[in-house]
Design goal:
118 residues; mainly alpha; Methane Monooxygenase Hydroxylase, Chain G, domain 1; 5 helices
Amino acid sequence: MLENYLPILVVIGIAFAFAVGSVVMSRLIGVKKPSEAKLAPYECGMPLLGGAEERFSIKFYIIAMLFILFDIEAVFLYPWAVMFKRLGIFGFVEMGVFIAILLVGFIYVWKKGALEWE
């Protein structure tokens, strides 16, 4: 049974050796000329406005989590659409229930005001 997994282990070993080798070689032969401009943080072309300790509103994280939640759920619509004819009425009803649950969750979030950006 080990011979079935040997090629996978070899590929994992080669990938790990390449990753470690790349980091080590860049440290050894890379040019090291630090300057104030190179060491400064850079974000979207905008100058740094505050420190790294600046606190963000929890609304930012809630909006991000809700976006991920509802965006990921939309991915499940694609396989259903591809297999729509083979699933028949059962698949249609199941997807209707799925979308109804998502809609109830979306309406709940909307009524709670979690989507308002203030």
